[in-house]
Amino acid sequence: MDAALIPKGVKRCPLPQFLGALTVVSVVLLWGVYAMLLCWLKGLNQTNMNNAYGFALWIWADLAVIALGGGAFFTGLLRYIIGKDELKNIINFAVLLGFICYSSALLILGIDVGQPLRGWFIFWHANVHSMLTEVAFCLTCYFFVLCIEYVPLVLENRQIDRVPFFHNLSHNMHEIMAVFAATGAFLSFFHQGSLGGVSGVLFARPFGFREHILIWPYTFFLFTWSAAACGPCFTILITKITEAISRKKLVKDNVIRLLAKIAGWMLLTYIFVKTIDTIYWAFVTAPSKGFVLNFFYTDNAFYGYWILFLEIVLCGWVPAFLLVVKKTRENNKLLWIAVFLGALGAMVNRWVMVLQVLAIPVLPFENWALYIPSWQEVATTILPVAYGIILVMISFRYMPIFPQEQELNPIEPPTPEVEPAAAADAEETPADEDPAAPEGDLQPAQA
Amino acid sequence: MKKENAKRFGMVIDLDKCTGCGSCMVACMAENNVPFREDETDKLLSVAWMRVYKLTNGKAFPDADECFLPRPCQHCEGHHGHSPCVSVCPATATDYDASTGIVSQIYTRCFGCRYCMAACPYHVRLFNWWDPVWPDGMEKMLNPDVSVRMRGVVEKCSFCFHRYQLARQQADYEERGEVAENEYQTACTQGCPAGAIVFGDLNNPDHEVTRLAQPDLSHEGKSRNPKAFRLLERLGTNTKVYYLSSREWVRRLGDNYQVKAAQHQA
Amino acid sequence: MLPFISFEWVSDTVHFVFHGALWYALSVLGMGMTYCIVKAAYDTIKGKAGDHH
Amino acid sequence: MKIDRRSFLSFAIGGAAGTALTPLPWKLTDDMSIWSQMWPWTPVPARGAVTVVKSACTLCPGGCGINVRKVDDRVVKIEGLPDHPVNDGSLCTLGLAGAQLLYGPRRVKTPLKKVNGRFVAISWEDALAEVSEKLSDLRAKGGAHTVACISSSDRGTVAELLARFLRVFGSPNFIRMPSSQDAYEVALYLTQGVRAIPGFDVEHSDFVLSFGSGLLDGWGSPVYLFKAHSQWRDQGGKLIQVEPRLSRTAAKADQWVPINPGTEGALALGIAGVIIKESLYDEKFVNSHSSGFQEWKRLVIDGFSPEIVSKVTGVKVTVITELARSFARANRPLATGGRGKGTSPGSLKEVLAVHFLNALVGNLGQKGGSWAVPEPEYIDWPELEMEQAASTGNQQTRIDGAGSDIYTHARYLANRLPEALLTDPGYQPVQVLFISEANPAYSLPDTTAFKDAVAKIPMKVSFSSYLDETAELADLVLPNHTYLERYEDVPAPSGYPLPIISLVRPVVEPKFNSMHTGDAVIQLAKALGGSISKAFPWDSYEECLEETLGDKWESLMEQGYWVDSEYEAPGWSEAFETASEKFEFTSREISALGNYSLVKPEGDEAFFPLVLIPFDTMRLWSGYVGSPPFLIKSVEDTLLQKNEVLVEIHAATADSLGLGSGSTAVLTTPKGKARVKIRTTEGIMPGLIALPRGLGHTANDRFLAGKGVNYNRLAGPVEDGATGHDAAWGIRARLAKA
């Protein structure tokens, strides 16, 4: 039925199967929307946040998706500015993931603030000294950039591309994409950094606070760096997942390996600097404020040294080495593990820098403040995941996201076998493709 | 930055006198239209500008000892007015007033991002998780000098700034240049039956508060009074609320929080 | 956000640098997009069709 | 089709772009934010003319002056009255929250009558007619004495009007709610021969030895005590707190002396023994102005040596002797008794033991000492004309037995009411019960028994402004104005050493269809006619009050209070009106009451291995007025979590029961059981459970009801052998995992 919309030269699963999977994900989405409406209509009492935990699951999700969306800016930087031409084969997907991450982040922020209708005060009454202002400005601007980068993809849909104006528009946008990418890289650099600055500048929160270079705390640079390192890991991870679900190769190994290698070196340098930062903070910064390292990791029900180990060693040094060393990088299984750990590392880091900062009692007569998110918080956090899956499904089905797909998967005569498990796979993961589906349904009969 | 006759309003709370009765809390609630709910036992959800903490010395019976510590907003001056919360507010909804030393909060400007709450180590900033509701007829006791806060914004102790405004108006009306010490007092100071709270201008050597706090301005206001301490002084928050205690363990617990760290280390 | 209109505006270095960067980025994006759209419209009227990539 | 799609797309995109260029979206965005800044459901307090009215607080016996700030006709804030001798400008938690009692949802808005178990509104005429008919009926049948009245106070015009009404009607059954004043009054009478109110010049004392008195937990006149405490801090006065639990008072004290509960009197006698033995007492006083000293001395020295006392009390011998020495050597030492807020009379012998310490150091009537403040004399109404029915009725034995052969010294014995009413004498001893400014169904020990007893009374009339536990039991509720809507005199604040009267005046017009209890009484009297009517020659309460206060009225209206600041306690040679005209350490009467003995808590030790004791806090009020919402809000989370109360228990005791901090347990006493949460602490003696007073309301409003457990539901009275007063200080209990 929708064959006319599907890019030329690629196979997609039958429409009912696609719609079925879409429906399942949409139910999750609607659950999230319901929770979101509850938060908007009834207020933030729907959450389990409190006055000790003003920032909680959402802000973590925000920081995490933005870090993971960092693949977009960094791949763009490599592709358009540094000129790593091979990356053009993955840049579309990176942009798509970036777009999803950033739009999700903005949505979550829209739920998280107590007065969403006044959210624009952050622009209108901007306090330039606030890291959050910097975040808001750069985040929004960079979201524009991502839109600009994503729009040509949409315009390349077979049907839209037929309209001459849109065809020309997408062509022109491609022409000057480097300018946009450069602006985006600049913006992204700053807001990734300013997100790091958010806890880094809290001089009365010794766990988050870091020394400064000019106005920027070390976390400013660490966040940008880690986003550049872990974002590409996430891009690779999702690409691999998409490949696994669609059961076809979408990006050539050399492209993935190049990106993995760069991510590996970024991660290695990042974790090296992060380790130094942690040691300096633990033995200089924190004691200067009257705290010893042990205090931050003991006497509570959750945060132990394990989280430090998880972040720095398991999700830092380990994937860094796995990606830097050619032999392990080119081992498919180890690559999977490495990019997974890399992405997880960013998420753990963001968790620590948001939630652990607030969990620690600074007043000597207060207790640790631990919290468990309410279902409304969980649902609204899953909402963007569902939304992302839907967007990937639609984009993958109707837009030429992977330029190498056609070459890697030449259309062959129909295979007789049918994989019944495919539908189930499609429910859970961001791809919709079932390579084993009968070819007949893909015929553009209804076009 | 500092104006010629700038005020630096501050407080001294004598913990030897404070009995932890809670009058300061109630006086504040009544003065500042603080809402109340059926269940206020979760103190992390409860809006109370003034909160009285109970400190324990950690010793076993019968050597156990307790001390009560009222905690209003500390009105941090930081370095040059750089209080932890003010600089982080993205929408300029909170401000450090260099002419009074008071950290203000504009409720209609705040859009509820709660960054300031994350920044404040004293938990003085409180979020309105619920719409404020007064049972039918009870809204009659609302004070028109203080606006009621809508759901979704952050609020905090203002050192009863509205009282300063009223006193200033009166002084201007009577063509007096200055507001006298007793003309501007916070509701908690006035309410405290123990007289444990002293409020005034820390820049004015004639004010009782200055006499007690003995701030050393060359050391960011650190007190010269050996009985005095400020909460978490070492963080550099440079607060304007001084505490007096003759008990060493109280001073150590409130000020030198390394004690706690050391306990944890041991 | 805007000099003269927003009363929070302070004419100091921080504001100039910060907002300068913001407005610079916005201008680049705005002008870039305007260029693309205008050129696309022009090309469409002229009947030109550019090739992809 | 193709064209349609194209034009649709163009239209949509063009339309969106076009709209974005108009001011509309910007205007809407701005409007939305402005709307969010003034949500119609967020109240905006109305502005208006600001006035301040001087009045007085009646919420506790503390007698503070208040300044009520009004905006137009609204009460906005209550503050202390500057320069008032008792509170000088500051106020306690309850007083500060007073406006919530005026506007809160617990008010009774109109007279109510219970019909088939439910309250229905009724007019004042009908309500008063119903009462007066019942009363004349009773009186005609010779049952005048079966009318009783429970009141929180017997001082001031309202209480006196009620008492007068009962007397002229023919009933002796005016009952004051119990307090430590009960035992003190007897002690003052027995030792000094005076009918007086205990007063303590705490602010001038420099060494206060408190036997469990919650001096900083609401004892006496709280604000006055707080101010005195601060003065000690400034001027080097010492406070020693003898108490099994680290109360706020103990925490603020210079020394906390933990003691086995209920043995405070023994410690006082032990200290007295040391003082006597080491001849540290005031020889001038003891030798020239006391009698029976030698006899008492022998008793003390023999029976209460430090070693014996140490064994009984758990206080070390060295501590006892040290306390005795420092107490006796202080310039102006003062000993106080009456546990917690002093809401329970306690054992007379214990109060005497403490009082004797004051006598030993010669502080009676002295600066910084223990005073006998004369009862206020301004209420001087015409003699009653007693009809036959009245005289007969008044000669009947009181329903509570006070003043009878068994309970010679007691004036009121509210604690004996349930027993009296539940023991069936073959007829109903109380036909009509008035309750004024008291909530016995909540605040008398063993509330279950009280409720059962009250259920037997055919007509219960409550004058309460609030629908409290007792009002809920009533057949008629005749709501009084709240203290912010009425006139009233507040004499003799609890424990305050000088004669003082403060004036309550209407700050606002009555909000609801309520009536001053004074007016209600006058109208009832008028309806009954005859000598009863004649006994109330005033048209209104206001007229009565103005006339009663006479020349003080003006200064009261002007200043808000009247104080006899010149008052000085009479010298030792004139002070004592005993037979010997001296202070009596022993006398025939005192000896007749038996020796000091410990009051045992109710319950079998084998089944109830622990002891439950109550404690008071300024953040909860346990008297007639239940805590308003602000007070409940100020309660710590170490005391109340959600609706569950936390009991304090020593960590080791909790351990032995397999209970940890935060766990839920069932607390059982001989009187009942309740679910509680456990809070372990080092601030309490092992083996004890401490439960705050003031929680566990079932009535009032939703901010107060249903939270925690009422101590009085779990506790019962223990009759003092000497007086009949309630001498209980705790009750045996057990705790088990829930």
Verbal overview:
The complex is a heterotetramer of chains A (447), B (266), C (53) and D (738). Chain A has 447 residues and is an all-alpha fold. Chain A has 18 helices and two strands. Chain A has one domain: Formate dehydrogenase/DMSO reductase domain (Formate dehydrogenase/DMSO reductase fold). A two-stranded antiparallel ribbon of chain A has the order 1-2. Residues 418-447 of chain A have low confidence and may be disordered. Chain B has a single domain, classed as Alpha-Beta Plaits, CATH 3.30.70.20. Chain B is α+β, with helices and mostly antiparallel strands and 266 residues long. Chain B is built from seven helices and twelve strands. Chain B is globular. Chain C has 53 residues and is mostly helical. Chain C has one helix and no strands. Chain C has one helix spanning 13-46. The termini of chain C are far apart. At the B-D interface, helix 1, strand 2, strand 3 and helix 4 of B face strand 3, helix 4, helix 8, helix 9 and helix 27 of D.
List keywords for this structure.
heterotetramer; B: alpha+beta; four-stranded mixed beta sheet; two-stranded antiparallel sheet; 7 helices; 20% helix; disordered C terminus; C: 53 residues; mainly alpha; 1 helix; 64% helix
Topology record:
The complex is a heterotetramer of chains A (447), B (266), C (53) and D (738).
Chain A: H1 15-42, H2 57-68, H3 70-82, H4 88-112, H5 121-124, H6 131-155, H7 158-161, H8 164-175, H9 177-200, E1 212-213, E2 216-217, H10 218-246, H11 253-288, H12 293-297, H13 305-324, H14 326-329, H15 332-359, H16 375-398, H17 405-408, H18 422-428
Antiparallel strand pairs in A: 1-2
Helix pairs in contact in A: 1-16, 1-18, 2-4, 2-15, 3-4, 3-9, 3-10, 4-6, 4-16, 6-8, 6-9, 9-10, 10-11, 10-15, 11-13, 13-15
Chain B: E1 9-14, H1 23-31, E2 51-56, E3 66-71, E4 94-97, E5 102-105, H2 115-119, E6 126-127, E7 154-155, H3 161-173, H4 187-191, E8 197-201, H5 208-213, E9 215-216, E10 222-223, E11 228-229, E12 241-244, H6 248-254, H7 258-265
Parallel strand pairs in B: 1-12
Antiparallel strand pairs in B: 1-8, 2-3, 4-5, 6-7, 9-10, 11-12
Chain C: H1 13-46
